[in-house]
Specification:
S-adenosyl-L-methionine, 812 residues, Hnrnp arginine n-methyltransferase1, single chain, TIM Barrel, methyltransferase, 8-stranded parallel β-barrel, protein-arginine N-methyltransferase activity, alpha/beta, 28 strands, disordered N terminus, transferase, Arg_MeTrfase
Length: 812
C-alpha cells in the first residue's frame, strides 16, 4: 500500500490552465494626498489592486519633532543647572493622542483596499534611549489606530542597521522587541517587515528624520566605515526578529528586490520565508531599446518561481510615479490589461542582472542622461501585467500538488486502520508508480522463464501473490505483465481490509475473469496458497522432513506496495518479514527487493510555525514525523566530496536470510534465545534485526536555521542484472532519473522542537534511530552544530532536543 501522502479532504479544484494572479500595489514614499474613494477608483481603473497609505500626517510628524526639541532644550538646561548632580534626569516625554489632523485614515469601506505604511522617519534601533522610546511610541500609536480603522495589512520599514555581528550597538534586539509589542497591540493585523534582499537600502535624506537627534549620532556615524556586503546579513536580521516574535503567523516579509539579484542560495533562502510582498523601485528595472522599463531574465525567473508559492506574494511598485489621471480626472487613461505593444515589453539588450559594479555604472549613466518624458505614466504596471499574462502553465506535478503544498499530515497506521476507498483512489492516480511495477513484474517473469527456474505451482505457472492488494491496481498490472510476456501465472490477492475484500471479489468477477484467488487475511497470518484441504489443520510452518506435508504451497514472486515516505516508516520490513514464510526459499523474488531511507536538514519556517501552533493543543505535535509536500523550504547543506546534500541513512533488503528469521522467531515471546530482553524496555528482541541507526555529517557553507529533517526514499523494485534495475525515488535530485513525475509519495518531515541556528562554514551532525519494542516502531532524532577551530578540532555550538515519535509510533 502506498503511503498516506494526500489528505482525504477534498483539495481545491483548480482550473487546468491556471496561471498565478498578480496583485499589484502602488506605493509613494511622499504620497501627496489622502487616499480617497476617487484616488482608489482611479488606481483601479489604471490596473492597480491596492494602494499604500501613510498612517499619520506631516502635522503629527511636526508635533513629534517639537516634543523632542522641547525635551532636549529642557534637558540641556537641566544638565547645566546645579540640580543635575542631586536630581534624576527628567522622564522621556509622552506623545499626546492623535487628532483628526494627525492622520488621513478613517474607518470605512475603502480600508480593505489599503495597506498601511508606518512612518519611515522613526528609528527603533537607536542607541539613544530618547529616540528609541519616541520611535516605539510612534509605532504603537500607528498600530493601534490602524487596527481601530480595520486595516488588515501594515508594512513596517526594516531596521536602520543590519550588522548583527558588529561590535556597535546596532539595536536589532530593540527593534525585534518593538515588533513583538506591536503584534500584541494590533492583535489581528498582518505585519510585513520591509527588508532588502541583501545590503542596505540607499540612505535617503528624510526631512524630520529622528536619527540625527540621537545624542551619539555624530560619533556613531564617524565610527562607521565602508565594509564588504554580507549577503546573508539582512536575512540574519529577519531571523532574529521572527525568532524573538516566536514565529508569529501574522509576521511576514516585504522583500525589496535589487537591480542585481544575489546568488542562488540566498534567493532560495528567501523563497522559504513567509513572503507577503515583493517590492520594486525604478532602480530594479532596466530600460529596453524603446526606453520602457523591463526586468532582467533573472528577475523574471525569480518572479515565476516565487509566484508558485502556496500563498503567492503581492507585488508593490514603489515610487514609480503618481497614479495617472489624478491631475486631470477627465483624461481617459488606458488600463494595464497585459496586452501592451511588443516594443514596450521587449527584453533589454542585457538579459541578465548586471554585476554590482555594472549596476552602479548604469545608474550613474542613467542619472546623467536627460530624462525623456514618460511614454506612459503606468509603464511599470503595464509591464507587470504583461509578466502575469506570460507566466508558464503549471506542470502536472504542480496541478496535482495544488492545495497540498506544506500541508502537514500525520502518517496512517496501515496495520491497525482500514483505509477508505477514497484514500486508495488518491494513491491510484499515479500512473508512473504502477507502470514501473508492471515493468518490474514483466522483467521478473521473463527472467524466470529464461533462467528455467522451477515454479511452485503444480501446473508450472509462476505463483504471484500481491500482499496488501487494496482495491487491486497491482493485481491488474500483474495480469497485464503476464499477458505481455506470455508467461502463465497463478495469482493470489491477499487483503486484510474487509471492505476492500468485497471490491476485490467484484473485480475478480467483472474485470479479471475469475482467475485471481482472493484471500481475506493479514499477510503475516496467511499460510500460503492452499493446495490441499485434506492435510493437517494448523500445522506449523517450520516442519521437518519426516512430518506430514503442509496443505499450503509457496509463492514465487511476492509483490507489495507497503513503502512509506521514509521507506520503512509504514512497517514494510515487519510486514514482509511476517509473510516471507510463504516465499519459495531458493528462487523466491520480492518486489520491491530493497529500499533505502535518505535525509537532509532543512529550513522550514512555515512548517515550524504550523507545528508550534498545533502544539498548543497537541503535546505530540513537535514529535510527530509528518508526511508533507515540502515546498517553501531551503536545503541547508552544501554538496562536497563524501558529504552530499542528501545522504543515505540505511537499507532494508528482501527476502531476509532464513537464519535471521529463525533467530527472531526463537526470541519471540521470551524464547530460549530472547530471555525477555531486547535493546528497548518491554521488548523481547524478536524485531531487533529491523532496528537501525546512523550518524551523518552535513557541511553548510551559509549560515541558517534547522527546523527539521526532510526524509526521502529510493527503492529497487527488481534488479534485472545486465537488463538494468527498475527503481523508484522520491529524492529531488534523483527522481527525474529514476521515476520522473511520480506523485505517490510526499517526503517525510522530522521536526525540531526548537530551531537550531548555526553560522557560516558550519557542520551539522544528524543522528537518527529506528527503534522497536516488538509492539510498535518509532524514530528518535537529534541535530548538533559544530564549527572548526583547528585542523583537527571543532567546537559544538549547540544541539537540538532529542525528538522521539514513540508516543505516536506505528503499531505492529
Amino acid at each position: 500500500m502506498a503511503s498516506p501522502q494526500q489528505p482525504v479532504i477534498d483539495p481545491p479544484s483548480p482550473v487546468d490552465d491556471f496561471t498565478p494572479t498578480f496583485y499589484v500595489g502602488h506605493h509613494e514614499s511622499k504620497r501627496p494626498l489622502p487616499v480617497t474613494d476617487f484616488v482608489l477608483r482611479q488606481a483601479q481603473d489604471v490596473g492597480y489592486d491596492m494602494l499604500t497609505s501613510p498612517i499619520t500626517s506631516p502635522h503629527f510628524h511636526s508635533r513629534v519633532l517639537t516634543l523632542i526639541s522641547e525635551y532636549l532644550s529642557e534637558l540641556s538646561l537641566f544638565e547645566a543647572s546645579d540640580d543635575a548632580v542631586t536630581k534624576s534626569t527628567p522622564p522621556a516625554p509622552i506623545i499626546p493622542p492623535l487628532t483628526p489632523v494627525d492622520t488621513p485614515l478613517t474607518p470605512g469601506d475603502t480600508v480593505s483596499q489599503l495597506i498601511a505604511y508606518s512612518s519611515p522617519w522613526i528609528d527603533l534601533c537607536s542607541s539613544d534611549p530618547l529616540i528609541s522610546n519616541i520611535s516605539r511610541q510612534v509605532l504603537n500609536i500607528e498600530i493601534a489606530y490602524t487596527s481601530f480603522c480595520g486595516v488588515g495589512n501594515i508594512i513596517i520599514p526594516g531596521p536602520r542597521s543590519y550588522s548583527s555581528g558588529s561590535t556597535n550597538n546596532d539595536g536589532l534586539i530593540q527593534y525585534a522587541r518593538a515588533i513583538q509589542e506591536a503584534l500584541t497591540i494590533g492583535s489581528y493585523i498582518q505585519m510585513a517587515i520591509h527588508i532588502p534582499m541583501y545590503g542596505n537600502d540607499e540612505v535617503k535624506d528624510m526631512t524630520g528624520d529622528l536619527r540625527p537627534f540621537a545624542r551619539d549620532h555624530h560619533s556613531a556615524a564617524k565610527g562607521k566605515s565602508i565594509k564588504e556586503i554580507d549577503l546573508f546579513e539582512t536575512w540574519d536580521a529577519w531571523n532574529l526578529i521572527r525568532s524573538v516574535c516566536k514565529y508569529n503567523s501574522r509576521l511576514s516579509v516585504a522583500l525589496g528586490l535589487p537591480r542585481q539579484l544575489p546568488i542562488e542560495s540566498l534567493q532560495s533562502r528567501w523563497f522559504a520565508e513567509p513572503l507577503r510582498l515583493l517590492s520594486f523601485t525604478p532602480s530594479t528595472f532596466l530600460k529596453n531599446k524603446g526606453g520602457h522599463p523591463v526586468l532582467s531574465k533573472s528577475h523574471q525567473s525569480l518572479i515565476t518561481r516565487y509566484m508558485r508559492l502556496k500563498l503567492p506574494p503581492w507585488l508593490l511598485l514603489c515610487d514609480v510615479g503618481p497614479i495617472p489621471g489624478l491631475d486631470d480626472p477627465l483624461h481617459r487613461t488606458s488600463t494595464a490589461d497585459g496586452f501592451p505593444s511588443p516594443t514596450a515589453v521587449a527584453d533589454a539588450s542585457r538579459s541578465v542582472s548586471p554585476t554590482p559594479a555594472e549596476a552602479v555604472d548604469l545608474l550613474s549613466k542613467e542619472s546623467q542622461k536627460p530624462r525623456p518624458k514618460h511614454k506612459d505614466p503606468a509603464a511599470h504596471l503595464i509591464y507587470m501585467r504583461y509578466l502575469q499574462r506570460s507566466q508558464p502553465l503549471r506542470t502536472a506535478i504542480e496541478k496535482f500538488g495544488s492545495g497540498y503544498q506544506d500541508y502537514l499530515q500525520a502518517p496512517l497506521q496501515p496495520l491497525t486502520d482500514n483505509l477508505e476507498s477514497v484514500t486508495y483512489e488518491v494513491f491510484e492516480k499515479d500512473p508512473v508508480k504502477y507502470d514501473w511495477y508492471e515493468r518490474a513484474i514483466a522483467q521478473a517473469l521473463s527472467d524466470w522463464t529464461e533462467q528455467r527456474k522451477p515454479t511452485s505451482s503444480p501446473s508450472g505457472a509462476v505463483v504471484i501473490a500481491v500482499a496488501g492488494s487494496g482495491r487491486g491496481p497491482l493485481v491488474t498490472r500483474a495480469l497485464r505483465a503476464s499477458e505481455m510476456t506470455g508467461v502463465p501465472v497463478e495469482l493470489w490477492a491477499v487483503e486484510k481490509n474487509p471492505n476492500a475484500y468485497v471490491l476485490l471479489q467484484r473485480h475478480n468477477e467483472e474485470d479479471w475473469g475469475g482467475v485471481v484467488k482472493v484471500v481475506k487475511s493479514d499477510m503475516r497470518a496467511w499460510k500460503g496458497p492452499l493446495r490441499s484441504t485434506t492435510g493437517p489443520i494448523g500445522q506449523a510452518i517450520t516442519t521437518t522432513s519426516p512430518a506430514p506435508a503442509s496443505p499450503y504451497g509457496r509463492v514465487d514472486i511476492l509483490i507489495s506496495e507497503l513503502l512509506g515516505s521514509f521507506a520503512d516508516n509504514e512497517l514494510s520490513p515487519e510486514c514482509l518479514d511476517g509473510v516471507q514464510h510463504v516465499l519459495a526459499p531458493q528462487f523466491g523474488i520480492s518486489i520491491p527487493s530493497s529500499y533505502t531511507a535518505h535525509l537532509t536538514p532543512v529550513l522550514a519556517p512555515r512548517l515550524h510555525a504550523d507545528i508550534s501552533h498545533r502544539a498548543i493543543t497537541d503535546n505530540t505535535a513537535t514529535e510527530t514525523p509528518y508526511v508533507v509536500m515540502l515546498h517553501a523550504i531551503d536545503y541547508l547543506a552544501t554538496s562536497v566530496p563524501d558529504h552530499p546534500r542528501i545522504q543515505e541513512a540505511w537499507e532494508f533488503v528482501h527476502p531476509l536470510p532464513a537464519t535471521t528469521l529463525a533467530v527472531a522467531e526463537a526470541r519471540r515471546g521470551g524464547g530460549v534465545s530472547g530471555g525477555g530482553g531486547g535493546s528497548m524496555s518491554g521488548g523481547d528482541g524478536a524485531n531487533e534485526h529491523n532496528t537501525r541507526s546512523v550518524r551523518l555529517k552535513f557541511v553548510c557553507k551559509d549560515r541558517g536555521v534547522v527546523n527539521g529533517l526532510a526524509g526521502y526514499f529510493e527503492a529497487v523494485l527488481y534488479d534485472g542484472g545486465e537488463a538494468g534495475k527498475v527503481e523508484l525515488s522520491t529524492r529531488p535530485d534523483t527522481i527525474d532519473a529514476k521515476s520522473k513525475d511520480m506523485i505517490s509519495w510526499f517526503p517525510i518531515f522530522f521536526p525540531l522542537k526548537t530551531p537550531l541556528y548555526f553560522p557560516d562554514d558550519s557542520e551539522l551532525e544528524v543522528s537518527i534511530w529506528r527503534q522497536t519494542d516488538d509492539r510498535k516502531v518509532w524514530y528518535e532524532w537529534l541535530v548538533e552544530a559544530f564549527v572548526m577551530v583547528g585542523p583537527d578540532k571543532r567546537m559544538r555550538l549547540g544541539m537540538s532536543e532529542m525528538g522521539s515519535s514513540r508516543k505516536v509510533g506505528c503499531l505492529m
